[in-house]
Amino acid sequence: MKAIVIDEYGTADMLHEADLEVPQIAADEVLVKIAATSINPIDWKARLGLLKPMFDWGFPVVLGWDLSGIITKVGKDVVSFKVGDEVFARPDIYEDGKRGTYAEFAAVKEDKVALKPKSISFEEAAAIPLAGLTAWQVIVDRLKVKKDEKVLIQAGAGGVGIFAIQIAKYLGAYVVTTASPKNKSLLTKLGADEVIDYHTHSIVDVLKDYDAVFDTVDQIDDGLEILKPTGRLVTIAGHPTEKQESATQSVSTWWLQPNGKELSQLGELVAQGTVKVIIDSVFELTSSGLQAAHKRSESHHAQGKIIIKA
Ligand SMILES: NC(=O)c1ccc[n+]([C@@H]2O[C@H](COP(=O)([O-])OP(=O)(O)OC[C@H]3O[C@@H](n4cnc5c(N)ncnc54)[C@H](OP(=O)(O)O)[C@@H]3O)[C@@H](O)[C@H]2O)c1
């Protein structure tokens, strides 16, 4: 099958096309013919070798951890899906480093898969799993945002931020976010009550007594400063210091846990139009397509999700 791989850690120009074996599936896995995948910052962080302490991959490495597509094979223990189902998923990060989603096929454990709502395109569906589930798990499960609470979501125009704003609004919160001025009207349309231009205003000068902070930019001290003494902060971008952890507010880090059931719930919100998918750009599954997509993500200024069409 066609895949886009790296043979060493380095720049985006290392990404190139290769011919690999179609992955074998285990009894609890399905094989998906990929229609689309999407880029997340973890992709280029992995490409640079920053995940080496966690994963001892052998080259070539296939990156990518979002997919939508059609099931072409099911393992013998799979009960919830069949060949022909249209699905989307955030697959596990496999130890061998060869089973990412920059490829024609990927194996996914049954419990990580969700049926794709018919009304969502494959491109939209591929945008949801990693960023959408991260936003869902932080806003709903970790911060436990409630109606009328005041919530700050950093980097509102990013892949995670756009989902987080809409999920927090769905729960009835008052939502403030940070963004460049060009993104203000989009984020207001998506429900943000206030959009702070982080280039000209520091959140600590304009916000106080917040109930919850979703930190996506590693500004934990600033987040703590605007919280009530009983407030909660979750970061997906930093590592709280001992001093930060000893604050009166609760402070924690979160790593996405892929989960097919939660993905299904989020898919329903998208199908109903409660949560909108915002696509920054679409590239082809080619060497030049992936190189351009990584460079776009590394600019730190994508508006929503960067999609790869297989
Ligand atoms: N722990 C986990 O499980 C997990 C999961 C997903 C993501 N992450 C991490 O979370 C971070 C965000 O991910 P993402 O997918 O949302 O990234 P992204 O899509 O690349 O974010 C791009 C956005 O960041 C905004 N931005 C850049 N610098 C900013 C700043 N100083 N203040 C406010 N906004 C800023 C830009 O907004 P403007 O263009 O408006 O300036 C742009 O829209 C990344 O570090 C990623 O690795 C962690």
Automatic annotation (TrEMBL):
<dbReference type="InterPro" id="IPR002364">
    <property type="entry name" value="Quin_OxRdtase/zeta-crystal_CS"/>
</dbReference>
<dbReference type="InterPro" id="IPR036291">
    <property type="entry name" value="NAD(P)-bd_dom_sf"/>
</dbReference>
<dbReference type="InterPro" id="IPR013154">
    <property type="entry name" value="ADH-like_N"/>
</dbReference>
<dbReference type="InterPro" id="IPR011032">
    <property type="entry name" value="GroES-like_sf"/>
</dbReference>
<dbReference type="GO" id="GO:0016491">
    <property type="term" value="F:oxidoreductase activity"/>
</dbReference>
<dbReference type="Pfam" id="PF13602">
    <property type="entry name" value="ADH_zinc_N_2"/>
</dbReference>
<feature type="domain" description="Enoyl reductase (ER)">
    <location>
        <begin position="10"/>
        <end position="308"/>
    </location>
</feature>
<dbReference type="InterPro" id="IPR020843">
    <property type="entry name" value="ER"/>
</dbReference>
<dbReference type="GO" id="GO:0008270">
    <property type="term" value="F:zinc ion binding"/>
</dbReference>
<protein>
    <submittedName>
        <fullName>NADPH quinone reductase</fullName>
    </submittedName>
</protein>
<dbReference type="Pfam" id="PF08240">
    <property type="entry name" value="ADH_N"/>
</dbReference>
<dbReference type="InterPro" id="IPR052733">
    <property type="entry name" value="Chloroplast_QOR"/>
</dbReference>
